[in-house]
Amino acid sequence: VVLVVDFGAQYAQLIARRVREARVYSEIVPSTMPVAEMLARNPRAIILSGGPSSVYAEGAPSLDRSLFEAGVPVFGMCYGFQIMATTLGGTVDDNGAREYGRTPLTVSKAGSTLFEGTPTEQSVWMSHGDACSAAPEGFTVTASTDVVPVAAFENDEKKLYGVQYHPEVMHSTYGQQVLEHFLYRGAGIEPTWTTTNVVEEQVALIREQVGDKRAICGLSGGVDSAVAAALVQKAIGSQLTCVYVDHGLMRKGETEQVEKDFVAATGAKLKVVDAEKRFLDALAGVSDPEQKRKIIGREFIRVFEQAQLEILQEDGPEVAFLVQGTLYPDVVESGGGTGTANIKSHHNVGGLPEDIEFQLVEPLRQLFKDEVRMVGQELGLPEEIVQRQPFPGPGLGIRIVGDVTKERLDLLREADAIAREELTAAGLDRDIWQCPVVLLADVRSVGVQGDGRTYGHPIVLRPVSSEDAMTADWSRLPYETLAKISTRITNEVADVNRVVLDVTSKPPGTIEWE
Ligand code: XMP
Fold first, then answer.
1. Which positions fall inside the GMPS ATP-PPase domain (predicted)?
2. Would you say residue 114 has pLDDT above 60?
3. For residue 470, what are the domain limits?
4. Of the four listed, 137, 165, 360, 504, which is most buried by Cβ atoms within 10 Å?
């Protein structure tokens, strides 16, 4: 493993991903972890991330010198570079030499491990106030900028390297190459980590964890739960039962994707609960968004628990495990750790113990989203599932402004299917994050169709581009594609006589309308 020491910037996850793109397995650890503990994990290399702007600031995270004396190759970036410099006796000062954003870097290549094969002049991404003016003893300076004399240093003998910039961001043109040079040449690591290893390793681990007991997995139609289920299915076969709650709020064809395609690809045992009527009854007359979300969440848990109980009552070994598609970013954001948690399932159906305690099986805990997709591919899941864009748990229930009825859902499903079809046909699926299609059921406007006046509902298209859904921009889709979607929706979907485009970024608008 390569450890990425997180100094509190948002860059650590990106660095860990870049290391994995270089086919080397990496994990993030907090900078507060004692060095002895880091070393006890036998890392092949350690990377120090960026962080707060000044190593001299009050309360700035520090690092024990012993990290650099353990013989483990270390690569410092930005703050990590400065902390390396000061700890090892170099000079970092606040001389007003600030650099932010794209900056030209001059590389002196002779004998450089990091920069060999890259151009003498290259563009890098800087973000710093202090600057290093003298490298520690024994280090060679291998790059500089107009304002920073020491923008990179290397010590091949001790296997210690550092750069002032952020090689992990894509604006640093040769960043990935420099990182790979550190990993392969500096640290001597072979690029062998692949998602194939992940599948094999996880299958073995799951078998060991579950033994001859049984497990349950809820499928939502999304990528994460599908891949988690497929992995567990590969490991324990018929000891796994998947549960899919059909709440009637899915898009066109999505329930079939789970019922047919997922089962065909994995051979998993699937219990489908048709709960459409129950959800629609509970939602009848409700138009408040929060209210809708609460009702859908509550009903979902009830239906899922009822299904769990039925599985518990079937003949067979004890049902002791619940499979969840937790991903690495969730693990990191909730404080890390490799342990497995227990969760309790409370239910309100008579005849069985008050709480059922499950152990969690979380085979995707070490993976990023793009890696989950690769694992899904490897497991033979259909493209439509593996490449699926995000879709909210409450489904189309929160894409109808107004109260939710079967007729309105059917109408929205048609409009949504047309939009998706045309976006796919135009090859735009990878360019957008997602494109909610919203029915303004409480709004009517006048139109003319054929020879007659119409008084129908508008459909809103909300295509957005985003990195992580925290912020988003509206996608500048080609007019031809928008025109085609508009024409088809107004022609093919009864009661819709207008299509409008949402041109709001997030913030101030959220991606979904409710
Ligand atoms: P907003 O509307 O908050 O959405 O900008 C951000 C992202 O989250 C998705 N979303 C949800 N996903 N359950 C989910 O699983 C939900 O209740 C939910 N609400 C929003 C939304 O589609 C977008 O990708």
1. 193-388
2. yes
3. 398-501
4. 165
